Amino acid sequence: MSIEHTEKILLAHGGGGRLTTSLIENAILPKFQNPELAQLADSADIKLDASEVLFTTDSFVVKPLFFNGGDIGKLAICGTVNDLAVAGAKPVALSLSLIIEEGFEFDTLEKILASASQTARQADVPIVTGDTKVVEKGAADGIFINTAGIGTKYKQTNLSFDRILPGDRIIINGNIGDHGMTIMSQREGIKFKSRLKSDCAPLADLTRTILETGADVKFMRDPTRGGVAATTNEVAQSAGCNIELIETALPIDSSVRAAADMLGFDLLNIANEGKVVVIASEASADKVVNAMQQHPLGKDAAIIGSIADRDDDPIVELLTTIGGRRIVQMPYGRELPRIC
C-alpha cells in the first residue's frame, strides 16, 4: 500500500504536502464537484444578484458521529442552511472545513463527506470552498466540522422581534425533541419499542414555501440547542411580551415522550434540527399551518401558543394539560452537551 492510500488519517494529511493534495483530490473534491470549488482558489468567486446578503457560520461536534436519521456531515449542512432559511434567505453557497484527529478511519470520513454532499444537493446549495486540518491523536474526538454560508434575502421579507405584537400566534412544523432524544438514547445505549429518529433536515424549501404564501410572517427561528424553551424565552425578552404555550397543542412523538420521561428531560429544552418556530399574525396563522402541512417537513404543523400582553419583565408560561400554569425557564445550557 502506498502512503497515498493509507486506511487512516495521518498527521501528514494536514501538512500541506503531497498527502494533503491526495486527500483533497481523491476524497473531498469528488464529493462536492462544482465550478467554483474546482478552481481551488483561496476564495470562491460567487456572483450574487441581491441587495441584501446574509452570512452565517456554525461548528458541529456531535457525539456519536452517526445517529439514526443523520450524521455529523448531514448535520453540518442542515445547521447552516437552516440558519439562513429562518432569516428569510435563499442559501446560495457554503464552506465546509474539517478538523480531523490523527488515526481517523478513511472509510468513516468518506461516509461523512458523502452524506454532506447528498444533503447539500437536497438543499440545492453548492459547497464552494473549505479547509482541512489534522490534529494529533487525543486533540479532537474524531472529527469536528465548521460550515459557513451566504444567502440572498427574499424581497419583501421583514422578519424581526420588533414586529411581534400581542395576539400573534406561535407555530411549529412538527414534533419536538426528536433529535436530542435520539442522540441521548444512542449515547446511553437505551433501546425503546419504537426506534427514535432525528428530525435533521434542511428547511430552506419549507421556509420559502411559507414566505411565498404572502402570510404576515413576523419572525422565524430554528429551535436547536435549548429547544423551544430557549427560542420562546428569547422572543419574550426581545419583543417585551409574555408568551403562553399550550401543552396539549405541542406535537410530540409518543416514543420521544417516553424517552424524555425515562431520562428526566423536559422536551421543551431538547434540541431539534429540522424544526422552525414561526410567529405570524392571528389572521395569517391558519395560512402558515396549511402551507406547512402541504410540505413533507410540515405534516404535523400546529399552533402551539400565542404572544400575550406586553410586560417589562416578560415570561413564558405553559398552560398545562390539567389546567395549571408553569413558568418555562431559559435552559441553563448544560443538559445535553455535544448534541449538534
From TrEMBL:
Which residues does the UniProt record annotate as the domain PurM-like N-terminal?
Answer: 43-151
Which parts of the sequence belong to the PurM-like C-terminal domain?
A: 166-312
**Membrane spanning stretches:** none
| Span of the signal peptide | none
Q: Name one GO biological process term.
A: protein maturation
Gene3D superfamilies referenced in this protein's UniProt entry, alphabetically:
PurM-like C-terminal domain, PurM-like, N-terminal domain
**Highest taxon listed in the record's lineage:** Bacteria
Recorded family membership: Belongs to the HypE family.
Record-given protein name = Hydrogenase isoenzymes formation protein HypE
UniProt lists the gene as: hypE
